[in-house]
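Hello forum,

I keep getting stuck at the same step: I have a sequence, I want structure tokens, and every attempt I make locally crashes halfway through. Rather than fight my setup again tonight, could one of you with a working pipeline run this one for me? It's a single chain of 490 residues.
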Amino acid sequence: MSVRERRVARGVFERSFDGGSVYVLRFTSEGERHYVTLGTRTDGWDDRRATEEYANVMADVRRRIWLPPDRTKAKRARERVEERTIPTFETFAAGYLEGRVGEVSERSVAFERWAVDLHLRPFFGNYVLDEIDTQLVDDYRRHKVSQSRARGAAIEAGRPLTARIRRREYVLRPLGATTINKTIEILQTILTQAVEYKLIPENPAEGRRRRLAVPPKQAAHLESVDEIEALLQAAAGLDRQPRYRMAGRLPSIATLIFAGLRAHELCLLRWRNVDLANRKLRITRSKTKAGIRTIDLVPILHAALTDYKADCDYTDPDDYVFPTGTGGIRDKDNVRNRVVEPVLKAADELLISKGRSPLPEGLSPHKLRHAFASILAALGTDPVTSKRQIGHTRYEFTLEVYTHDMATDPTQRARLRELVNSTPPRPAPTSRRTPSPPNPTQRRGGRPCRSSTTPSPPSRPSATRSRPRSPPNAPPSSTSSPTESPPSPS
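Reply #2:
Ran it on my machine without issues. Output:
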């Protein structure tokens, strides 16, 4: 509940709440500070009457005849005001989201808006905060399960449910247990603030029993050197195909695997932080303090980045290493959809053509990062250095979660060491531009100077086929269409 205070005149203030306002007086009498509640506008108080009352009180103070009012009466007056100002969930959640802007990242705000606008507000919106109890939270959980089953049944029957959002028609897909739990976690966060503001006595969304049980999934990670080689060959093959307007998949995949970057770290990486001369890569922006680190470039990654930079259009120190076609910043969804997923599909085809099993299901940009822990182990890096290079706080976590069979199998360790010291596949030059005479408005990196006379370059048309759109049950991003599930954590 937000409280605002307006100064009417000397010693006279109006305290405004979400549901009303109350006039108060502040003054000193016989060396003590006093706070007197007058009443609300519905009780007949306004600026003129409150100012006159202040003058009368101060006259009594000067004559030494003023006595403090009955404290019990003043307390009851405040309680009557507060009873009328407990907001609904919709009002309180809107204020919560507004207050988050600028305090947390834009992606975090978008994630919370996704949960509130599409899931929580339609169910809890009209409830006053103190009406939300444990039973209502359980009813919400059961409602989302039932809703998801209905969506799944409609899709199986060939008559999927749809919704028109932002002028487009989207198929309503079922929500998984993890997604439903994420919405309850946002509900718990909002109600925690209501508890702190003394609006409700306890948080009804707390506890594991308010969540759905999430079925265990087989962990997905790269299991052999053959799979890493297939990914590198597939990425190089896509970069060589003229029909793909986007280049740089090979160095992107190599950086994820051989430097262990998180997807958002890959997006934020600039050339000033890539020291090819000293074979160092610096991460200056990360989601954790331990993520700010310096990584040693292994030979294969050093060669891939050197070749890539030689043909890249954007090589100024402040240019992004892996930008969009117009030099802008990518986001995690763009990396997953435009870079990693096409490479995974091509690598599967390559492995199957050689009579081998395809890649494990569920690989993502973050799962490629796990291979870096196995590479460090194969190179004999001590655990403390490994956890610093990966960006973890505890080396036990690195060894337990990130190091897989490749790090323990002697044959795989030997092949990893051989791969790390080899050269990457050679893609075609990354530049997609036709050579032209020098332009005085062009910077060295090839990007136009930022001036009012230089038009921005047109955006490149997408080379991928259009896909059926899912409803925006995930935070919107600037470069990807809405998806059903929220983005996975970095």
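Residues 134-156 form the longest helix (23 residues). If your local run keeps crashing, start a new thread with the error log.
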